[in-house]
Design goal:
- The chain has about 180 residues and is mainly alpha-helical.
- The chain folds into two domains: about 45 residues; about 110 residues, AhpD-like (Up-down Bundle), CATH 1.20.1290.10.
- The protein is built from eight helices and no strands.
Amino acid sequence: MSRLPPFDLEALNPEQRAVADAIVAGPRGGLRGPFQAWLSSPTLAERAQLLGEYCRFGTELADDVRELAIILAGKHWGAQFEFWAHARLAKQVGLPDDVIEAIRTGERPTLARDELQVAYDLVTESLNDHRVSDTTFARATSTFGERGVVDLIGTVGYYSLVSLTLNAFEVEVPEGETNPLA
């Protein structure tokens, strides 16, 4: 059960309302996931949602590379809602079911493109080892460029924040859905 009371848009103060309106008017189109918790701190909510908007909609990363990174972060942190939401998006942008399932179960997926393999290695080394080897960093920089590596690591960082928030506030998958990381 979520640690948050039912969401009441009518109870928002003006500062919260401004942030909520900006989120709803943006590319997400709604308030889901961590936003209810973040609205308790409107300044954090505003700044975090702008970073998230960039990470999700503004980088030059391929959609499947981005979603691969996001579901890896969700899996790493055991964030049920995060993995549930982005596994669906990963499938929509072309990540095969067997790749998503391998990540869900903690197996190393077979990835069709080198770009995906490099992203997988960069993200998993970063999350698991808290560092990235020189070899992986060189491959990632060669594949994505310096800006792409920064965007990829930034995306993992943002979705780690999202996952930690979802876990702390016990944000659940929607009613009728099954926790994917059981």
